[in-house]
Amino acid sequence: MTFNEHEKKRYKRHLLLLEFGAKGQECLKNSKVLLVGLGGLGSPIALYLAAAGVGTLGLADFDKVDLSNLQRQVLFNEDDIGKSKATTAEKKLSKINSTIELKIILERLDASNIQNIIKDFDLVIDGSDNFATRFLVNDACVFLKRPFLHGSVHKFSGQIGLFLADEKAPCLRCLYPAPPTEGVGNCSEVGVLGTMTGMIGTLMASEAIKFLTSVGKNISGNLLVYNALETSLDKYSLARDESCPICSEHASIKNLRSETLVPSITREKIEKDFVIIDVRDKYEFEAFNIGGVHIPLYELESRLSELDKEKTIVALCQLGQRSMSACAILKQNNFNSVYHLEGGLDAQ
């Protein structure tokens, strides 16, 4: 492939790299990457992939910019508050690189649409901030045999991994067979150092470029973990789990799991005979609650006998993450009519 004068000047620093050169830039130009989530991780990933010249960049996010996002989501500013993240990102990235194609996906990803969305992309990058989306993306990538670049942050640490979805490589469920059943809050609940998302997001962008261009050694089969408090960067080997519920020979998951997508309900639609369980910690419940049964998430499995399987149960927490995990536990234990309070108490 020949590059025009504009491209030669724009990508000169890439073209000068002996290990990268014109061949690497051509690979980027022909690549199609889907980025799920345009938050703390998605912001630096989107900026660097657009600047690097990824030919087609899909931007999937149904959320809007909030003031609390600006501490770490460097793609946005105060003028963007209340605007769609995806459409705002499209406008900004097109000014950074007008030669690439940007595709925005405004709908929430779920079991009914995700496979159709990701099937045309060469690499799927997860920049989401919740377990439901993370496992949904992994499962869809396994079914469609799409490489999946995972990243997450928690307080002062973060991790990344590349899952190739082939017969020998592990998937995310080899590492975590199911979403956590204990209260692991997202950054909205427990906080995160703003620079952590920049560091992990930039590492993810670098690994994406390496994978797409076959430059260097990618991190497939490894988990890279950074701890800002200790200033440590460690790499752990990952092996395929022969009992993995989705990628092993005897996988139990044949379709996208229903518990990955927990049905939600708004407060005004909760009927009088529904059973509300508040799965927050004791201090949160005592500070404010809307009634119901208080069962902290970490106690739920040992207290299932207190709940009636014939009743409709609504689980709630502060922001909706722990309540989704609670619903997954309930469904696994044959509670069929369960919902989580959409957006948690903060959204009500």
Task: Sum this structure up briefly.
This protein is α/β, with parallel strands linked by helices. The protein contains twelve helices and 13 strands.
Number of domains: 2
Measured as a percent range, the helix fraction is 25-40%
CATH homologous group name of the largest domain? NAD(P)-binding Rossmann-like Domain
How much beta, percentage-wise? 15-25%
| Average pLDDT | 90
* Corresponding CATH architecture of the largest domain: 3-Layer(aba) Sandwich
H/E element order:
HHHEHEHEHEHEEHHHEEEEHEEHE
User: How many individual helices?
Assistant: 12
Characterize the overall form: globular
In angstroms, what is the radius of gyration? 21 Å
Structure class: alpha/beta
Spans of at least 5 consecutive residues with low confidence: none
Number of strands: 13
What profile does the largest beta sheet have?
8 strands, mixed
Q: How is the CATH topology of the largest domain named?
A: Rossmann fold
Order of strands, main sheet, comes to 3-2-1-4-5-6-7-8
First-last Cα distance? 55 Å
Name of the top-level CATH class of the largest domain: Alpha Beta
Structure description:
It is a single chain. The chain is of the alpha/beta class and 348 residues long. It folds into two domains: 31-257, NAD(P)-binding Rossmann-like Domain (Rossmann fold); 262-347, Oxidized Rhodanese, domain 1 (3-Layer(aba) Sandwich), CATH 3.40.250. 31% of the residues lie in helices and 18% in strands. The chain is built from twelve helices and 13 strands. It has an eight-stranded mixed sheet with strand order 3-2-1-4-5-6-7-8, with helices on both faces. A hairpin with a 4-residue loop joins strand 7 and strand 8 (232-237). Helix 4 (42-52) runs parallel beside helix 5 (85-96) and helix 4 runs parallel beside helix 10 (194-213).
